Amino acid sequence: MSKKSNWKPATQLVHSGTLRSQHGETSEAIYLTQGYVYASAEAAEARFKGEEPGFIYSRYANPTVDMFEKRMCALEGAEDARATASGMAAVTAAVLCSLQAGDHIVAARALFGSCRWVIETLAPRYGIEATLVDGTTIGNWEKAVRKNTKLFFLESPTNPTLEVIDIAAVASLANSIGARLVVDNVFATPLQQKPLALGAHVVVYSATKHIDGQGRCLGGIVLSDKEWIDKNLHDYFRHTGPSLSPFNAWTLLKGLETLPVRVRQQTESAARIADFLSGRPEISRVIYPGRDDHPQAALVKRQMAGGSTLICIDLKGGKKSAFGFQNGLEIIKISNNLGDAKSLITHPATTTHKSLTDEARDQLGIGGGMLRLSVGLEDADDLIADIGEALDANV
Ligand SMILES: *Cc1c(COP(=O)(O)O)cnc(C)c1O
After folding, report:
1. What stretches in the chain show pLDDT beneath 50?
2. Per-residue pLDDT, 3
3. Ligand 1 centroid vs 340 CA: distance in angstroms?
4. What is the predicted pLDDT for the residue at 1?
5. pLDDT reported for residue 355
6. What pLDDT does 157 receive?
7. In 3D, which of 248, 287, 275 has the Cα closest to residue 136?
C-alpha cells in the first residue's frame, strides 16, 4: 500500500494530484492550452479510441484542471470528480445530469438563491418536479417522497441562517428508495464535514468561496463515485462545456495548499467573535454552529469536525439598525461573498435573498435585522474592536 493513502488532509492539499512536466517544476504548471498535438495520425486515432491515455481537448480535460480534481478527490475521499467554471455550473450539472422528465426532486428549502432557482424554476420547465421542505426534520423529507423521487438535495449549514441538516438520516432515506443525495458542502468546507462518509452520494462545491479563499476567481467541482460520474456526468460535461479554465484551476490549487491553515484560523476567530456578539445588548440572536446555544448543537457535534467561519446575527432594531451597523464598520467590508481572507458582511433580506417572496423569507426566518458575517484572516482583536465600535456608534 502506498504511503499516500495515509496522508492527512494538510499533506494531501499540498501534494496530492501533482503532475510534473519534464522540467520538474516545484509549483504546479499552468497548462493554458485548448488542445494537444499527436505524434502521428495513428496516435490521434488511438487517443480518440481510448486505447492510449492522454488529453484530447480542454473542454474534456486539461492537466492543470486534472491536478485540481485529483487533489479534491484525495481530500474528499471521492473516486472521481469534474471541475466546473463556477459553483452554480457544478450544482446545475449535479442536479440535471442524472434526471429526466417525470422525475421528482426533494430539496431542503433553505438554499443558496441560485440553487433554489435551478430546482424550483429551471428543472420544472423540463418536466422534473420539485418539492421544497423544511429540511431540519427528517419526517418532512419522508412525507415529500413520491414514487418518482430520484434525487435529494441539501446544503448544511444553510445560508444564511446556519441551520444544520442531518445528512446521514437523509442519505439513509435516499438509499431506502433507490434515490441519490447531493450535498452542497460550501458552508462547512471539505475540512469540517465529509458528506460522502455520512452516506451522501454526490458532493458539490463552489470553489469560489473558501477553496480560493482570497476573492480571485470563480470555480466549482462535483465529486462522486466513478460509476455515477461515468454514467451521468461524463457525456453531459463534455457536450455542454461547463469546464474550469486552467488558469483558475491553478489559482484554486494554490488556494488548497493553505486551506487548512485559513479555515482553522477563520473558525477560531469566528468562535471568539460569536461569543463577543452574544454578550451585546443590541443583538437578539447569534446563530453559530459551534456554540452550545445553536438550535442543533448535538447534531453539529456529531456531523461536523469544527464550527463555522460564518456567523448569523439578528439586530433588535431591524433593518435600520442592521444598515447603520454595517455602515459603521471599517475593517469588515459590505459584500455578498464569503470564505474570503477579508471579513465580509451582508444583509440577506435586501441582497442575496431579495428575490424570494416575503412569505418564503419569513419561512426561512430572514428578517430585516439579520446579517451574515464571513470571518476573514484579520487579527481577531481588530475585528472585535471594529464590531464593538460600530455597535456603540449605532444609536
Ligand atoms: C456561492 C455558492 C454557490 C454558487 O457558487 P458560484 O461559484 O458563485 O457559482 C452555491 N452554493 C452555495 C452554498 C454558495 O455559497
Report:
1. 1
2. 72
3. 13
4. 41
5. 87
6. 97
7. 287
Residues in the chain: 395
pLDDT value of residue 2: 52
Q: How many CA atoms lie within 13 A of 279 on its CB side?
A: 8
Shared domain check, 267 and 236: no
The secondary structure of 280-323, three-state, reads CCCEEEEECECECCCCCHHHHHHHCCCCCCEEEEEECCHHHHHH
How close is the Cα of 164 to the center of ligand 1, in Å? 17
Query: Is there a contact between 222 and 180 (Cβ–Cβ < 8 Å)?
Result: no
Ligand 1 atom with least separation from CA of 159: 13
* pTM, entire model: 0.96
What lines the ligand 1 site, CB under 6 Å? Answer: 86-88, 91, 112, 114-115, 155, 159, 184, 186-187, 206, 208-209, 218, 220
User: Considering 237, 254, 271, which residue would you say is the last residue of a domain?
Assistant: 254
C-alpha 280/C-alpha 133 separation (Å) is 33
Domain ranges, residue 352? 259-393
User: Is the four-CA dihedral 8, 12, 16, 20 of positive or negative sign?
Assistant: negative
